[in-house]
Amino acid sequence: MASDAVRLSSLSVLALVNFVFVFVTGVDFVRFTSFRAIYHNITGESSLCQESVPWSVALRDTSVLKAVSTDLILLALFTLQHSVLAWAPVKQACQSVLGVLNRAMYCSTTALALQVLMRFWQPVNDAPCLWSVRTAPWDIWVPLICFILHFLAWAIIFSILLIFDYGELLGIKQVYYECFGMGDPLALKSARAQRLYAHLRHPVCLELGVVLWLLPTFPLDRFLLAGYLTVYLALAHSLDTQDCAYLSVQLRSKMQLFSSPPGGSGQVSPTTAHHHNNNNHKRD
Prior knowledge:
- By secondary structure, the protein is mostly helical.
- It has helices at residues 2-43, 55-58, 62-84, 88-98, 102-120, 138-163, 166-169, 172-179, 191-199, 205-213, 220-236, 241-258, 270-282, and strands at 131-132, 217-218.
- The chain has a two-stranded antiparallel ribbon with strand order 1-2.
- The chain starts with a helix and ends with a helix.
């Protein structure tokens, strides 16, 4: 009995540590892809590129080639981790060893790969930019417009995550169900939900595309990041009309839940909301 309590407590602690690590990494990724680049344009710090250097010279520069090679290796390592651990044989092997911590392990290793990518990323400042808005008054307005659109894109991304079972997405729900002997949460979902989860790898392709490509100044290293991840997202996208229809139903359900009046007969208790959510998942 005591050993079971220790085991469940350990699982809970590991799941919470994973959640904190993934959350912090997500905040760092927002800063890395959006706010740092746009803030640089607004404040007008050191130049991100050398417009006086032609491409023919820049692409023979040893420092440029070294930075490009390092960035490509970092991107390859990230996609290798992200894809190999999602490969069915590897996923089944990890599931047999880690059990309910399998999803948390996947999220932690993905966050770790992102941290390595962000910490060791090499800016390419000795090559020309693909584009750079420097003409007044657009040198002020374009960064502000990009900031607003990036903010909206990230707000949409986080809103989309609310449509999904983010507790299960981060591996917390698996541990919660294990602690209370409720089984696998995915097995309780409807066939349509399981079909969606089997097809869906990245639910926010369009919004991430806006974040990756929409910048007032676009240096070579940003082109590598945006181009590589865009191709990866496109190859991983496999939703069809049935999946989109299911997502539409879930979105309407969540909107009705969030728009319920705070008091009176429209008030929804946590227990009722939990049963309502489970019924939506089980409904075909």
